[in-house]
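Reviewers asked in the last cycle whether our approach scales beyond single polypeptides. To address this, we selected a multi-component target totalling 635 residues and predicted its structure end to end. The input consisted of the following lines:
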Amino acid sequence: MTAAVEKSRGVPESSRAEWFTSYDVDAFEVPSGREEIWRFTPMKRIAGLHTGVAATGSAEVEVEAPTGVTVETVPRGDSRLGQGGVPADRVAAQAYSSFADATVLTVAADTRVEPVTVTVTGPGAGEVAYGHLQVRAERFAEAVVVIDHRGSGVYADNVEFVLADGAKLTVVSIQDWADDAVHISAHHARIGRDAVLRHTAITLGGNVVRLSPTAAFADRGAEVELNGIYFADAGQHFEHRTFVDHAVPNCTSNVVYKGALQGEDAHTVWIGDVLIRAAAEGTQTYELNRNLLLTDGARADSVPNLEIETGEIAGAGHASATGRFDDEQLFYLQARGIPEDQARRLVVRGFFHELLMKIQVPAVRERLEAAIEAELEAVGG
Amino acid sequence: MATLEIKDLHVSVGTDDGAKEILKGVDLTVRAGETHAIMGPNGSGKSTLSYAVAGHPKYEVTSGTVTLDGEDVLAMSVDERARAGLFLAMQYPVEVPGVSMSNFLRTAATAVRGEAPKLRTWVKEVKASMAELDIDPAFAERSVNEGFSGGEKKRHEILQLALLNPKIAILDETDSGLDVDALRVVSEGVNRFKASGETGVLLITHYTRILRHITPDFVHVFAGGRIVESGGSELADQLESGGYVKYTGEAAGV
Ligand SMILES: Nc1ncnc2c1ncn2[C@@H]1O[C@H](COP(=O)(O)OP(=O)(O)OP(=O)(O)O)[C@@H](O)[C@H]1O
Ligand SMILES: [Mg+2]
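The resulting structure, written as structure tokens, was:
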């Protein structure tokens, strides 16, 4: 159950504890693509985001906010920016160094608000844009924020979640881009004492989508869930790199990512880093990645990586599995009269079921169910 | 009147060393109102027969015919066979994670009946059938067969039999893994299904105990991939005392 990476024999080069971070793009070397953190990413297809391409347009950010939520557009000098975390790769730093202005959403203390929707529309085909969004949940605030990415173009951004003590924030980030889109995004969460973050990434469309959600605990008693659902079709590259940083005692993290792939050269990557630092006694963590290959020619990479620097943990484990469609399940359903295409859909829906049920916003859940059905229809089941 | 007719059926499975013939000429006719029991040693091909009739893709029919009321079953897809009125209660029912039993049952009933059952009567119907089989209503919300005990899985196979009401049912070792009470409950379920007299049952078993609850009209001994002897229910009692030695010797000699 417990997989330990000893630290006593010297810090392995890849240890998350030693990763370089900076807000400044020039502090990072231009990656060649051979680096551990870039080796899965098709660098030729990311439109120069790693070599300093300038913005040629901007993404449109529309916020539908209920009462209790303040929406501001702030210049880059705003002192709150960066509180959620620091870029850990060159593209995130490029986005941090390049955005024009940032959107800041603040959920007032001790209030529970209706769902907030942020719609981000890409800059358009052939255009490049950078962005920045910060969501702040004050003490004991409770909110659901849906971030909906759509449209065309190349977009790199940082999204920060700053949770004060006792805040409960649910985030659903949907990447449902047009076929040409390239999106490289870093999510940074800083989680206060006894706060709870439930973060779900849903990636359904785009040419290349690379999303790196990082969660760091600021104080004890906090909890984070990082969930993900992805569905890659022919030629699409969807990459999710989760990182949970346990630096304080008695926090809990749970990472569950599930993906389905179909079509020639559909490629998904899941990297699940968890670091339990020496001080993080009483940590409880589990991570899981499952991939369902619906056709030949698709490829799923899955790399769980658990680093444990203390022996005093409550529990730590991980699991990863990639498999083909289960013909026995299909046979069983068909043997009860259910036509093959419908049976396939039932099995795939069943595969995602536990994650879909965690999405508490019915409208979002229904949209996802419909999107998954549409993905299955597209290939003619 | 429903009739399942199996003629000179030969079936192979693909193995690492090429195709291996398992069924070597099976002849069997099951008519509505009849109950046939098939008994035979482990590995003789009983499940292979049931899977081949249901259309499992692993089993290749190399020669012979299977018809249901004259229609060519072998030309039908798995789901078409089920909709035509064939049902297989499996020896090892498959788990389908994330698909609730209630959703599964309703989807299957809709497919087999050709239209979605009316919600109100459907709920009643399912509840009543579950109660008859001593199944806790909580199972409706669980994933299909996931984490069910062996006996629970078998009860659910019979629940599906009751709701889908096929013309011909093949029950592959539905009795194995059942305790005395469950055996009675499941047998009663099968007898309710038979009661109309318009359905046929092919019951595969190792033991005569289920035959005390469900009376067979015919008993067939299966060995070496074919039926080697047929008789009435008295044959089951002979098998109980004498075993299969006589038949396995004979089959091996062929
Ligand atoms: N995929 C396969 N590859 C190789 N051999 C197979 C395969 N499937 C079945 N067989 C073999 O076919 C034979 C018949 O198997 P089958 O399951 O039909 O027997 P059975 O009579 O139902 O046995 P039991 O009483 O144990 O249920 C066995 O020898 C089995 O090992
Ligand atoms: Mg068998």
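DSSP finds eight helices and twelve strands in chain B. We regard this as preliminary and will revisit it once experimental data from Aim 1 are available.
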